[in-house]
Specification:
By secondary structure, the chain is α+β, with helices and mostly antiparallel strands. It has 3 domains: about 120 residues, Sandwich (Immunoglobulin-like); about 170 residues, Roll (C8orf32 fold); about 100 residues, Immunoglobulins (Immunoglobulin-like, Sandwich), CATH 2.60.40.10. Helix content is about 15%, strand content about 40%. The strands form 7 sheets. Strands 23, 24, 25, 27, 28 and 29 form a 6-stranded antiparallel β-sheet that branches. Strand 2 and strand 3 form a beta hairpin. The radius of gyration is 26 Å and the shape is flat. About 35% of the residues are buried.
């Protein structure tokens, strides 16, 4: 980043999660104390751009156990293809591949290949033995690092009469990760508080802070410098640049895509301002998005939130200053969103009738829960029941033990319930916890 009027070059080192140029080079071997299994991971990028993992699971000769199933979770990444060795069955669900066989005896190994258009930063695996002795091995995390491949961009903008330029090189793996990431139903704060791009944003903020210190800028000037950069990015409509009418972008997407609409530039500006150490919120006037900044030396239009005055910042169009509110939003109300990390829980379910007796119908219910937010969901539980038609009554019900579901995590519950036969009922599921609102889903009414 440098000023053309007064050349002062500052090195901006953007933290990269690396991409391998060598196809399937050996990566690491991990042995976990609770299990006899060893895993060797190879990784690479195919010629058509797919990120590929090969995971070799070895059952040591002296383990004393035969293995029956291996489940590999990619944390909701899109799985394009997978390959298992002969004799293994495979199935996928929501970013998880499960492989099963009759028995993988001591002294043998099996290699599994998984490919995804998005980089696989980590995967989780669970191994179960044929006699159940190791069904409590739990979830094991294996982290993946990728070597460098970058996307170069060039930005030019004007601030206080000087022309500035910035020529960054962004991590392609980090960009691909966010490009394929789900768009969670949220108030947009999750796009600011997501942590995977913190190092990249912080490196840019450090350079801005260094420029501000060298120039002796006030906080008003420092914030306006950030705003002038963001305002210089072209406005682009989601419906034109993506296949969606509404597609909020994470900060690195807005930077690499060289622009976005009002929520995209507001998310980017809010992230930069907050990491500079200033309080920030998102401001949502009718059919618009902007930023509010807590600034002790600013004046103009502001919104009061939790006892503080947040001055309005327009991020679309150039030359807007802190506190300048466009005429069309004067006298209107706006929703205010704090930039607080929080869970965003979604779930889906499927059920299957597995048995009939003279008295009961037995159903197996698979519940898949995703945390698409930026903070862990605390004490998450599910309540599953077959409702009776009388209000408040159920035929059968069960509540799961609480778990903490980390940001980006997926959890599965397989539940079996047996309501009485010949009754009018519906399946009713609620998901609730300490730090998110209860969500629920019901089936149509039917007769068991």
């Amino acid at each position: 980043m440098r000023s053309m009027a007064n050349p002062c070059v500052l090195a901006i080192i953007l933290a990269s999660i690396l991409i391998s140029s060598v196809i399937l080079a050996s990566f690491q071997t991990v042995a976990h104390a609770q299990t006899p299994v060893k895993i060797t991971v190879s990784k690479g990028v195919t010629s058509n751009g797919l990120y590929t993992l090969k995971a070799k699971f070895s059952n040591p000769r002296d383990s004393g156990y035969s293995l029956q199933s291996i489940e590999i979770s990619l944390s909701k990444q899109d799985i394009t293809k997978y390959k298992a060795p002969s004799g293994w069955m495979a199935k996928t669900r929501d970013g998880t591949v499960s492989f099963s066989t009759k028995a993988m005896r001591p002294g043998t190994s099996a290699t599994f290949e998984i490919s995804s258009p998005a980089p696989i930063f980590f995967f989780r695996w669970v191994v179960k033995s044929t006699d159940g002795a190791y069904t409590d091995w739990g979830v094991k995390d294996t982290n993946i690092n990728w070597s460098s491949a970058t996307i170069k961009r060039n930005y030019k903008w004007t601030f206080e009469g000087e022309e500035w330029t910035w020529d960054p090189a962004f991590s392609k793996a980090l960009y691909d990760y966010y490009r394929y990431k789900d768009r969670p139903p949220t108030d947009y704060s999750v796009y600011v508080t997501d942590t995977y791009d913190d190092k990249m944003i912080s490196s840019l903020v450090d350079s801005i802070r260094e420029v501000a210190k060298e120039r002796g800028w006030t906080e008003w000037q420092t914030i306006n410098f950030v705003i002038s950069f963001v305002q210089s990015l072209p406005y682009t409509s989601d419906s034109v640049t993506t296949a969606f009418d509404e597609y909020p972008r994470y900060p690195i997407e807005t930077l690499v895509d060289n622009g976005g609409d009002c929520e995209d530039t507001s998310i980017l500006a809010a992230d930069l301002i907050q990491k500079l150490g200033y309080g920030a919120i998102l401001i949502n006037p009718p059919e618009h998005m902007a930023v509010g900044v807590y600034c002790t030396s600013c004046d103009g239009s502001y919104y009061e939130f939790e006892g503080r005055d947040y001055f309005y910042v327009e991020t679309t169009g150039e030359n807007w200053q802190i506190g300048e509110l466009p005429e069309e939003y004067r006298g209107t109300t706006a929703d205010l969103y704090p930039l607080t990390a929080k869970p965003t829980i979604t779930f889906r379910w499927e059920s299957e009738l597995v048995n009939y007796s003279n008295s009961y119908a037995t159903y197996k219910i698979l519940i898949t829960i995703n945390n698409e937010g930026s903070a862990a969901a605390k004490n998450l539980k599910t309540w599953t029941a077959f409702d009776a038609q009388q209000a408040g009554k159920v035929w059968k019900q069960i509540t799961t033990d609480p778990i903490d579901l980390e940001a980006g995590g997926t959890y599965y519950w397989e539940i079996t319930l047996s309501p009485p036969r010949g009754k009018d009922t519906r399946l009713h599921i609620q998901v609730y916890g300490d730090n998110f609102s209860t969500i629920e889903s019901t089936s149509k009414w039917f007769k068991t």
